[in-house]
Predict the structure.
Amino acid sequence: MVSFLMTIRQATEQDIPLILGFIRQLAEYERLSHEAVMTEATLRESLFGPRPHAEVLLAYAGDKPVGSAVFFHNFSTFIGRPGLYLEDLFVIPEMRGKGFGRAMLVELARIARDRKCGRFEWAVLDWNEPAIQFYKNLGAVPMNEWTIFRVTGDALDRLANTAVKNC
Amino acid sequence: MVSFLMTIRQATEQDIPLILGFIRQLAEYERLSHEAVMTEATLRESLFGPRPHAEVLLAYAGDKPVGSAVFFHNFSTFIGRPGLYLEDLFVIPEMRGKGFGRAMLVELARIARDRKCGRFEWAVLDWNEPAIQFYKNLGAVPMNEWTIFRVTGDALDRLANTAVKNC
């Protein structure tokens, strides 16, 4: 049995190629590669520009990067405070089942607690049973009564261009 | 038929009591009043503190405030850009069906477009059929294959306190 030191650290601008590689692999796993149009430039602007929109944790086995977690702060009106939202969690296939995903979730829970967030949330694909069981075991509750609605692309343009009449 | 001027403007710190009142009414409508623990102080800190976590639009009929929209920016790794997330949309019962909700959604779509957001999203309770039909008519697509998982309260503390072992 090989043993190695597991470390988790916050990503910096130098890690963009690594982050991009992990996002591409995650898109393949989720069968959503056709939706993955991000580039190093869009990531640089969004993660390390004047107004950062997300943060990234990187997981290492010794000195080998093996996974990433992309997160940002959302907001709960009912709590009146920010929450922590995990957008993506990824571990390379050959290192799954060794505790890296769990370690990143624990680190994110600590960040949520330290920043006084009322909630820690993420979305899961309904067919991903292994992930669902794993998350339930960590104390996460599925918000089964809610569905996300999304407007994007041409539909977003049409909505933005809708004339609004006075009543 | 009474006619009135419909206007939509960005809320300021002076509007906090008004915003709090609308959130409380929305919580009642969603049968979630027990979860609505926000106060003027938490809203002031989160909306107008050093690091704002959300923004608010207010809708007026003439000079009477009739509704609100609370939103923030999320982030899509696949697009590599921020999105706009609508956390709450509320119109007072006696002014529903007159176009205020639609006008706020159109204004949010414009903000999303102006800020180069790739997506405009929100969550809907599955039993809220009138809202679901209204959103579909505006071009929104339900993300039926995703479920949000949430960790909060004691479960969040337990997760944050989990020991992480090296493998």
The longest helix of chain B spans residues 100-114. Helices of chain B lie at 16-29, 40-48, 100-114, 129-137, 153-160.
